[in-house]
Structure formats: C-alpha cells, structure tokens
Automatic annotation (TrEMBL):
Residues 1-19 form the signal peptide. Gene3D superfamilies: Carboxypeptidase-like, regulatory domain. Keywords: Signal. This is CarboxypepD_reg-like domain-containing protein. It comes from the Bacteria. The keyword Transferase does not apply. It comes from Cellulophaga tyrosinoxydans.
Length: 337
C-alpha cells in the first residue's frame, strides 16, 4: 500500500523524568473485592525490565539506570494503569475490571473479509522487513478488525495483550494495543488526502530462549540495531553522530550535525533543540531517513528513549520500521557503561 504520510507512535516514549531512585515497590489489589492480585505484570514500557506480583500482590522492580519510560501495571480483564513519574513506593494500587465488551460496540456493516483485513494488519503492525517477516502473532483470534467504508479506515482492537514471537530477534513480546488505524486516503474535492498508519500501545520484551541466547539472535539484534531510531537517538544524545556513521542533511546539503542540534546535558537526560523542523538522515552512506520535530525541545534518556514522542516523526527507513524491528530500550545497555 502506498502512503505519503506515516504516523507510528508507541507510548513508551511519553514521559520526561522519573525519580532519582531506581527501585519501585507497591501492592496491587482488585478495586471491588479489595483482595490482592497475584501474577500482575509490572514493567517499564518498551523494555525487558519487568516483574510480576506475588501471592500478596506485592512487587519490587529495580533498574540500574534512570529511565523515562512509563511504568505499566497490567492484568488480563482489568484496566491498565500507567505511571509517568512513579515514586519509589507506589503504596496500594487498585485495578478496575474491564466492564465494556467490544461485542457491545455498534458498528456499520463491514464489507471486507477477515483474511483481507488480517493481511493488512500484519503488514502495518509488524512491518515487511526481514525481522517482521519472521514474526508470528500467536493469538490472532483475539484481534478484532473493522473496516469503516465512510472513513476508508481499518481499525483493530484487542481486549488481551497481543502475543508476538519474533523468530529473527529471539524475543517474545506482549503488546497491549490501545489504538490502531490504517487510513487509505480520501478525496477532498478533486484532491486526494494521503493515508497514514497509527499504532499506540505498551509492550514488554522477554527472551525466547531463557537459558541461553542463541548466537544468531545476537547477530540479528546487532544488525537490526544499527541505523535504527534507538541507535540514532543514543548517538544524538551523546554527540556521537559522526562516530556512529550518521550524516545530517538540510535542504539536500550535508551539514555539521551540531549546527542544527543544540544539546545540553540535564542530569540523567539530554535536552535537545532541533533548529530546523525537518532534517534528513543518512546512515552508513546508504539508509535514508528523516526526522521532523514539532516541539521546541525534546529529551533523550540514558536508554535512548525520547519524549515527547507524539511531536517527533521519522520518515524513510526509520519511519517504515514497525513492531517486528523493535528492540528493548535496555538493549546493549551493559556494553555502554
């Protein structure tokens, strides 16, 4: 499908600053019964840093470095809670059961077959790259798809986390889908409005092989990381764009990157001002991307997590990457110390 505009967003880039401490504790209860909930997932969005609650509903989550990702508390059948600035002690957290079922939503007749909608969903959600093609959604039956003819838009819903097995990168991913739209473009008079893809949700990574990570997975992760948005943001935050083989272009002319990027270190965060709204990126002399910023200042943490993500858009190679290309925000962190 040809699209001129691409919007692809994850919530894991949404907050700016957490506490200076790196341990978070709390106890999770059912709001109605006031009983503790065991097995509740607690994790930093977009990472492999997570835990579950014990029989008493208690959890302790520790991270080595400050991270600006959302803290997510998620349990099947309950509304997810997210914290952008959690204290070291969250105290008592109450989860409310999901009362509304998707089957109760009234929709207009859908003329597209499920097979057609599912093929588009796989392509726009996972992507079409090598890593994406080796991904498998384990619970496709839990995904509800709806095509709205009037809006020329495909929507997707899921009441439970989408379970993804990435056989190229060696990860299992739990993706809590909050919003998914593929708009195929519309005519306004004689002019055609370009389409877009928009995805939002939280996700948690775990190893496919818990005992020992296979060599092929490590090699594939390294190849996928190089030139990615995560690689770019880390290089930008540490003023290592040249060393990491990133070139910056303005109006088709190569420029010194720090003429356009004004970077200041603010504690655990890098504060970035991009002076020109749209800049082009060339990685290793071959992969073309772009970065478009709609905010005066954005922030990058130690992990390469940037915020506010809703005001930063990537095009080209980086903009075309989907869930199938994602690595945890804490990927390779140990080698960076």
């Amino acid at each position: 499908m040809s699209k001129q505009v691409l919007l692809f967003c994850f919530l894991f880039c949404s907050s700016v600053l957490l506490s200076a401490q790196y341990k978070v504790e709390g106890t999770v209860f059912d709001f109605s019964t006031k009983l503790p909930l065991e097995g509740v997932s607690v994790f930093y969005d977009g990472t492999s840093i997570g835990t579950i609650t014990n029989q008493k509903g208690k959890f302790t989550l520790v991270s080595d470095k400050q991270i600006s990702a959302l803290l997510v508390i998620s349990y099947i059948g309950y509304k997810t809670q997210m914290f952008s600035k959690p204290s070291n002690d969250l105290g008592l957290v109450y989860l409310i059961e999901n009362a509304v079922q998707l089957d109760e939503v009234v929709m207009e007749p859908d003329t597209w077959s499920r097979e057609k909608k599912l093929n588009i969903f796989r392509q726009e959600f996972l992507g079409t790259t090598m890593p994406a093609l080796q991904c498998k959604i384990k619970n496709e039956k839990d995904i509800r798809l709806y095509y709205n003819k009037a809006k020329n838009t495909l929507f997707a819903y899921a009441e439970v986390p989408i379970q993804i097995q990435n056989n190229y990168l060696g990860y299992k991913i739990e993706y809590n889908l909050m919003d998914f739209e593929v708009n195929f473009g519309n005519f306004i008079g004689d002019d055609k409005k370009p389409g877009y893809t928009y995805t939002a949700g939280t996700l948690f990574f775990s190893e496919l092989n818990t005992k020992k990570v296979k060599k092929k997975y490590l090699e594939n992760r390294s190849k996928t990381y190089l030139g990615s948005t995560l690689h770019f943001m880390r290089a930008l935050a540490n003023k290592r764009l040249d060393e990491e083989k990133f070139q910056i272009f303005k109006d088709k002319f190569q420029i010194h990157p720090y003429v356009e990027f004004d970077i200041h270190f603010n504690g655990q965060l890098s504060e970035v001002n991009q002076k020109t709204k749209l800049l082009s990126i060339l990685y290793d002399g071959r992969e073309q991307s772009s970065i478009e910023v709609h905010v005066d200042t954005f922030y990058i943490d130690y992990y390469g997590n940037h915020s506010p993500s809703k005001d930063i858009f990537f095009g080209g190679v980086q903009g075309g990457q989907r869930v199938g290309n994602l690595l945890p925000l804490d990927y390779l962190i140990n080698s960076m110390d």
